[in-house]
Design a protein that fits this description.
Elements: H1 16-34, H2 38-45, H3 49-56, H4 65-74
Helix pairs in contact: 2-3, 2-4
Length: 89
Amino acid sequence: MGRTKREEVKISDPQLKPLVANLVANVRARRSKLGHSQQSLAMEAGLAVNTIAEIEQERIEDIRLSTVTALARAFKEKNPLKLLQKPRK
């Protein structure tokens, strides 16, 4: 059964929390900087629009490395792990 739009996802692993927070912040910032809509980013990355929306709305508990890699490619980022690092201000 799917989640409702406003349902919060509880991240059970405390080590994942900062990584997810970093990914959310990086995806939002980079998408905005590049002028992508969620739909255009999804198309560029080969992901579902719903996946981008769930990431940006912090409705993810876990994420596949293939998703992080696809996002990195769409952002022209050579190192996918940078999306999991604290964003620069």
